[in-house]
Write a structure and sequence with these properties.
The structure holds three protein chains of three kinds.
Chain A lengths: L1 H6 L9 H11 L3 E2 L5 H10 L22 E5 L7 H10 L5 E5 L1 H5 L20 E3 L6 H16 L8
Parallel strand pairs in A: 1-2, 2-3, 3-4
Helix pairs in contact in A: 3-6
Chain B lengths: L1 H16 L2 E2 L3 E3 L2 E4 L4 H10 L5 E9 L8 E9 L4 E9 L5 E3 L8 H12 L2 E3 L51
Parallel strand pairs in B: 3-6, 7-8
Antiparallel strand pairs in B: 1-3, 4-5, 5-6
Chain C lengths: L8 H4 L5 H4 L4 E5 L11 E7 L2 E8 L7 H5 L4 H9 L6 H16 L5 H29 L4 H21 L8 E2 L2 E2 L6 H24 L3 H7 L7 H6 L5 H5 L6 H4 L20 H24 L25 H12 L7 E9 L2 E9 L7 E5 L1 H12 L5 H11 L3 H5 L1
Antiparallel strand pairs in C: 1-2, 2-3, 4-5, 6-7, 7-8
The chains are: A alpha/beta, B alpha/beta, C mainly alpha.
């Protein structure tokens, strides 16, 4: 309080370091294109002009995992695809988050059989689950805003 | 005109190869054939009776009946006459083999690979018989009736203690 | 952590040429996660510089075991899974399944239900072609098309949501007719769409049809001759682009298509540009069909009256004992289909979609096989892309219009 009153009209603001870091991470989080099945079409709808995800900072979807920090697993993950998923998750640089979009990614949805991984959290750690088959674009955006809330309250325990 | 062509073809095949009508297929009309003569029949169909389009190649498993265990079904369509027909071939349970139709209809290639992958039906003379839908080191043939579905039991309150649904990889918040 | 699986070199040696074994050509993996492969498709390319010598598709990354899963669900429950195979043509899949069941049971469908089915299937055809156009143009770097096409698609999804409550996986068609009657706003919304859409198609044409960049990238690319197409079992717009006027809606009509008047567009060269023109014209013809079906929409019941397969309306349960018994049997056991097998083909926006349904006399399917167009068309891909550059391959995959859920089931 004291320093702001003294230095206020010089244009200096004091704020916690965690708040700044989390603010920067939240406002420009770029997702990686990982649309597998039907949920990918709703993800594309959410990116299109009717429900615009770029207002929330997700201007582009980068195809390369090295240039993105959020992985939205949209669609069903089969046992043949699971190693590919894990490899892409490992290639994402820190800090990284995972949203499991749709019923098939969260718990394999309608399909309870030999070919699907029963929930993508068998393979990668998930932060937010978005339910729906497929979830409406508004539901996906709600899931993204929930993730933003979670990131804003993250503590800075390692220097990465 | 289409109906007559179909009747003519069915009658000609029955006379030439001694085939019989299948009672199971309601539509389109189907004939039952023997596994050894299938390539010859398809050649005749394509060259003489203008059935130049293979629209379906699939199989059914009748386990636990040992013979015939598999029934392979071929579907044909004729562009010139706008008419459809099918053929059904019965195969036994141990080492089911058929000769490939790749020389007659090139579109049969991937269908036969899928039948090898899902049912274990071998096709002689196929150029590339590998698994197509499952991964290469998968064991078993999933669409056979004695292959389990792989159902995972959900955790309700009555079986809460026997089933552990928590995945050890997932991040759980310490509440 | 699962070990990464790779298709081993030994397995593929017979597919690549000898120059690859000596290191003369490059083996490139266009992996399952790629922006232009429209899903999880893996292509192994053998390249000489930039020219493709051989292309080996590796599918199965979205194989969900739907056919086996349907064998353990009842007939009406299994319809839910049919939506999720080709997820851009959900009403078309429902229609094929219901038509196959109706042929097995010999169930009647009232004319109002048939007309509404035709309207929704044609709207779905337009929606599929819009997604195709958006993603195809996006791959060829015409990025604004993507946003325009998805804007139009929102109107169609609103109409579907108005009927059934769901945007994509509706399961609105049931054996015997529709799940419930269409609401009163349906006709107004569809007429508004028909009035608005032709000018939008003109906008897309103005952007792409005579665009010299687009024409350069798509003409004389990916040619498929007529004889090759028929021998490879190719159907749909790809076959029509190669010159064969084969459309199941005209050749073997179903669900009342014989009453409507429409043309079948065909191409001449069989290249990517011709398939583009065929699909654009198909959108206009679909509008014609919707207009005619909406004008002729008859009044009447929306589902069959056969109580053995169709649940009775709630009001009847208070007065009739048979209705209560039928309701009970349908809800606990489901309906039973007599022993038999049928193959029902339907014209989906991608090609000929066929359902082979076999029943052994129970309340569960014994065997269902979906003959999907994407599976067959991917087989034809290596023939179409020999000798082209990698940049052309992206255009060819887009023009074949594959959906991996349809291909792998």
């Amino acid at each position: 309080m004291g320093i702001e009153q003294k230095a206020g009209n010089l244009g200096i603001v004091t704020v916690g370091l965690e708040q700044v870091v989390n603010w920067a991470r939240v406002n420009a989080m770029w997702p990686m294109l990982f649309g597998l099945a039907c949920c990918a079409i709703e993800m594309m709808s959410a990116q299109a002009s009717h429900n615009d995800m770029s207002r929330f900072g997700m201007e582009l979807m980068r195809a390369s995992p090295r240039q993105s920090d959020l992985m939205i697993v949209a669609g069903r993950v089969t046992r043949k695809m699971a190693p590919v998923l894990r490899r892409l998750y490992d290639q994402l640089p820190d800090p990284k988050w995972v949203i499991s979009m749709g019923d098939c990614a969260s718990c394999s949805g309608v399909f309870n059989n030999y070919a699907l991984v029963q929930g993508v959290d068998e393979v990668v750690p998930v932060d937010v689950y978005v339910a729906g088959c497929p979830p409406r674009p508004e539901a996906l955006i709600h899931g993204i805003l929930t993730l933003y809330d979670k990131v804003r309250h993250e503590k800075l325990n390692t220097w990465t | 005109m289409a109906e007559e062509h179909l009747k003519l073809t069915l009658k000609a095949l029955k006379d030439r190869f001694g085939l019989q009508e299948s009672l199971l297929m309601k539509y389109p009309p189907a004939l039952e054939a023997e596994p050894e003569k299938i390539v010859e029949i398809c050649q005749v169909l394509r060259d003489e009776y203008e059935f130049d389009f293979l629209c379906e190649l699939t199989a059914v498993d009748y386990w636990p009946e040992a013979e015939p265990r598999f029934n392979v079904i071929y579907g044909f369509y004729s562009h010139a006459n706008n008419v459809r027909m099918m053929l059904r071939v019965s195969l036994n349970g141990d080492h089911p083999t058929l000769h490939t139709l790749e020389g007659v209809y090139r579109g049969a290639n991937w269908h036969e690979r899928e039948l090898w992958d899902m049912f274990g039906i071998n096709f002689e003379g196929h150029s590339d018989l590998r698994r197509i839908l499952m991964s290469q080191d998968w064991e078993g043939h999933p669409l056979r009736k004695d292959y389990p579905l792989g159902y995972e039991e959900p955790q309700f309150s009555f079986n809460y203690d026997e089933i552990d649904q928590r995945k050890h990889h997932a991040r759980y918040e310490e509440a | 952590m699962p070990e990464p699986l790779e298709v081993s070199y030994q397995e593929l040696k017979h597919l690549v040429s000898e120059r690859a074994l000596q290191g003369d050509t490059v083996l490139l993996n266009m992996g399952p996660q790629h922006p232009s492969t429209h899903g999880v498709l893996r292509l192994l390319l053998e390249l000489d510089g930039e020219v493709i010598i051989n292309c080996v598709p590796d599918i199965g990354f979205l194989h969900t075991g739907i056919e086996k899963n349907m064998e353990s669900k009842r007939w009406e429950m299994a319809e839910v899974m049919t939506d999720r195979t080709d997820y851009l043509n959900t009403t078309g899949n429902n229609l094929a399944y219901c038509l196959a069941l109706e042929r097995l049971i010999e169930l009647d469908v009232p004319p109002r239900a048939q007309a509404v089915r035709v309207i929704l299937v044609e709207l779905e055809r337009i929606s599929n072609h819009l997604v195709w156009l958006g993603t195809h143009a996006l791959d060829l770097a015409a990025m604004s098309m993507f946003l325009y096409c998805f804007r139009e698609r929102e109107s169609i999804l609103d109409i579907k949501e108005m009927c059934s409550g769901q945007r994509m996986m509706t399961t609105y068609f049931r054996p015997g007719g529709l799940w419930r009657d269409i609401p009163s706003e349906f006709e107004i919304a569809v007429r508004r769409f028909i009035r608005m859409f032709p000018s939008r198609i003109k906008q897309y044409d103005a952007l792409l049809e005579k665009n010299p960049l687009f024409m350069d990238r798509t003409q004389n690319i990916g040619k498929l001759s007529k004889e090759d197409a028929i021998n490879l079992s190719v159907t749909g717009p790809v076959l029509r682009g190669s010159g064969v006027a084969y459309d199941l809606r005209k050749a073997q009509p179903y669900s009342g298509y014989e009453q409507y008047d429409f043309d079948i567009p065909t191409g001449t060269h069989g290249d990517v540009y011709d398939r583009y023109l065929v699909r654009m014209e198909e959108m206009r013809q679909s509008l014609r069909i919707i207009q005619q079906a909406l004008d002729k929409l008859p009044y009447g019941p929306f589902r069959s009256n056969n109580r053995k397969y169709v649940p009775p309306p709630r009001a009847e349960l208070g007065t009739s004992m048979e209705a209560v018994i039928h309701h009970f049997k349908l809800w606990t056991e489901g309906f039973i289909i007599p022993k038999g097998a049928v193959y029902q083909p339907v014209e989906s926006p991608k090609g000929e979609l066929g359902y082979y349904v076999e029943s052994s006399g129970g309340n569960k399917p014994y065997r269902i096989h979906m003959r999907t167009p994407s599976f067959v068309h991917l087989q034809a891909l290596p023939f179409m892309c020999k000798g082209h550059l990698v940049a052309d391959l992206v255009g060819i995959i887009g023009s074949v219009d594959i959906v991996l859920g349809d291909c792998d089931r």
